[in-house]
Amino acid sequence: MTACVYGAPPAALAKAPAGARQVSPLVPGAEPIEALAPASLSAAVVAAPPGTLERRYVLALMLRALRPGGGLTALAPKEKGGSRLRKELEAFGCKVEEEGRQHQRICYVVRPDAPTGLEAAVAAGGPQRLGGDGLWTQPGVFSWDRDDAGSQLLISTLPALSGKGADLGSGLGVLARAVLASPKVKQLDLIDLDRRALDAARRNVEDPRAAFHWTDARSGPDLADLDFVVMNPPFHDTGQEDKALGQAFIRRACQMLRKGGVLWLVANRHLPYEAVLGEQFARVTPHSEGKGFKIYEARK
Questions:
Q1: What is the DSSP code (8-state) at residue 16?
Q2: Are 92 and 84 in contact (CB under 8 A)?
Q3: Are 159 and 165 in contact (CB under 8 A)?
Q4: Quick one: 138 exposed, middle or buried, by C-beta within 10 A (0-12, 13-18, 19+)?
Q5: What is the residue-averaged pLDDT of the chain?
Q6: Which of 1, 120, 195, 275 is a Cys-bridge partner for 25, taking CB atoms 3.0 to 4.6 Å apart?
Q7: For residue range 13-30, what is the model confidence (pLDDT) as tens digits?
């Protein structure tokens, strides 16, 4: 049986078939869901993402990849898209059996012979350009449809950097574009857990000095002796605020830097990063604040 799983559905609610291939863009090394051949799967399990366009995109791609008669199980927390799952699947022409357990809605469908509306959902949730001629982006990526105020504040504060550096949690490449505007930058490594973000960044940052890494910045890649690191670190994990996430990014940045190297960081004003910055770095300088964000320069 050829089967796929998207994300990490709770095993107690929806167990993925043995040998199911992972196709989530948030799992480094996973097969791209877009590469699944039509009518090639016999079963699929989807931990549906919370965003409407992103969720319908994933459901449509899975239905397209299933053989007629193949089974799809899709589930999500009620308050994060689960309450809409049934109607969305019915809109694709599916007959849906539904149940609720552990605050999640779980839907079971058999792929019909001729699903409806798949291509429209794939187009709406796929790669696109902001405003038609702006940055490449995709629903589900951080700040996919608007400028992020924190990143813009950091860009307005950054000096012209030089040498070798990294952008941790690089997203669409907004910070990277600003950093690479300096001709003194020799190399910039963009690191992100979201394959869709890196795919967009490759199109937004067409510069031979840029390298791209699909991995968790907390554990890779193996970089050292960098002159600088820039970052707008995430502070949510699986939808919940996690202050330790940004703190881990700060520690990782320190490991990557040479002595005397510098970290430029933007963070939401309420996040407690001052203590870990003070522990890791020899000198920490607060810079501008605005729109709920704060900027730090930290020298190793």
A1: P
A2: no
A3: no
A4: buried
A5: 94
A6: 195
A7: 998 888 999 999 999 999
